[in-house]
Sequence to fold (207 residues):
Amino acid sequence: MHLEASRDRTISMSMLRAFIAVEIPAEIQQNVYKETSHLRKGLDSLVRWVPVENLHLTLKFLGDVSPSSVEFLMQLLRIEAEAIQCFTIHLAGLGSFPSLKRPRVIYIGIQAPAALDALQRGIESASRRLGYESEERPFSAHLTLGRVKQNVTAVEQQKIRQAIEGIQVDLHGSARVDSVHLYKSELKPGGSVYTRLYSAPLKKANQ
Ligand code: ATP
Ligand code: MG
Fold:
C-alpha cells in the first residue's frame, strides 16, 4: 500500500502538465482586464479569474506528458506550425460555456481566419497520432477569463448571466500570430504558472 503510493508520487513528479497555445500580447491582456474590470468586481465571489498574464489561446491541452515525449511534441509543433502562414486574430465579445444559462467558463471570443482552424486541426490530429486523447468538443477559439466556482446556486448563475449580458465591453485589439508555443503548466498554491518549453514559428507570408 505504502510502496504503491510512493511509487505513484514518483511517477507523477516526473510527468509534466503540458499544453499548446498562442500567446496574447501583454497590451491586449491589459486591455481585456481593463474592459472587464467592472464585470470581474461584481462577480468576484462567484468566479475564479485567470490572472492577466495567464490569458492565452489554447490550441491543445495535452495533460500529463513524460519528459521523454517533449522532444516528439516539439517536433510535432515545428512541423504543424511551418505548414501554416502567419495570421491575425481579433478579440470578439464575451460569452460563457457551456451556455449563458449554465455558465461554467466565462470567455472572450476570438475571431480568426481559417489558418487558425487549420493549425488547430493539424496539431489535434498529430497529437492523436502520438497517442494523446482527442478533444470531443469542436474547437472554439477563446480566451478563458474565469471559471465559475463549483457550488454556485441557480440564483447566482442567473446573476452571472445578467452580468455578462449587461456589460458593454469595447474589446478592440488584434494580434499578429507568428508563432505557437508548447507550455508547461504547474499548479501552484497561488495559481497556475506557465513556462514556455518550445516556440515554433509559423510560415512567413509570401514565403
Ligand atoms: P487552473 O487549472 O489553475 O485554473 P489553468 O486551467 O489555466 O489554471 P491548466 O489547468 O494547466 O491551467 O490548463 C492549461 C490550459 O489547458 C488552459 O488553457 C486550460 O483551459 C486548458 N485545459 C485544462 N484542462 C483541460 C481539459 N481537460 N480539456 C481541455 N483543455 C483543458
Ligand atoms: Mg485548469
